């Protein structure tokens, strides 16, 4: 990876982490989107069949810090998956080179 690309990646990860730290304080506590629409129509909230590791995008019992940690873990998992996919794509030889 050249120096320019490395600086871009570090900058992008920094922006992601800054947004992860700030978003629990900026986000509205009022429901919106699908959750608000279901409340307006009167659809009752039910228990899910699959337990999410970060219900409501937070780690239970930690308040705003739990939200920040859940976002950082999500960023790390997403970047890890993207990195693995990039490695797998890089290992494939283009058809013109596989003679």
Reconstruct the topology from this structure.
Layout: H1 3-26, H2 34-41, H3 64-91
What does this structure look like?
This protein is mostly helical and 99 residues long. The chain has one domain. Helices cover 61% and strands 0% of the residues. It contains 3 helices and no strands. Helix 1 (3-26) runs antiparallel to helix 3 (64-91). The chain is extended and about 60 Å long. 4% of the residues are buried. The model has no long low-confidence stretch (mean pLDDT 80).
Parts with pLDDT < 50 across at least 5 consecutive residues: none
Helical/strand content category: mainly alpha
Radius of gyration: 20 Å
Strand tally: 0
Q: Distance between termini?
A: 27 Å
Helix content, binned percent = 55-70%
Count of DSSP-assigned helices = 3
Percentage of residues in strands: under 5%
Label this structure with key terms.
single chain; 99 residues; mainly alpha; 3 helices; 0% strand
In short, what is this structure?
The chain is mainly alpha-helical. The chain has 3 helices and no strands. It is extended.
């Amino acid at each position: 990876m050249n120096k320019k690309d490395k600086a871009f990646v570090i900058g992008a990860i920094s922006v992601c982490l800054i947004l992860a730290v700030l978003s629990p304080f900026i986000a509205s506590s009022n429901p919106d989107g699908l959750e608000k629409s279901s409340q307006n129509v009167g659809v009752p909230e039910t228990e899910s069949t699959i337990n999410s590791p970060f219900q409501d995008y937070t780690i239970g019992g930690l308040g705003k810090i739990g939200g920040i940690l859940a976002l950082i873990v999500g960023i790390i998992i997403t970047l890890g998956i993207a990195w693995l996919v990039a490695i797998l794509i890089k290992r494939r030889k283009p058809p013109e080179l596989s003679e």
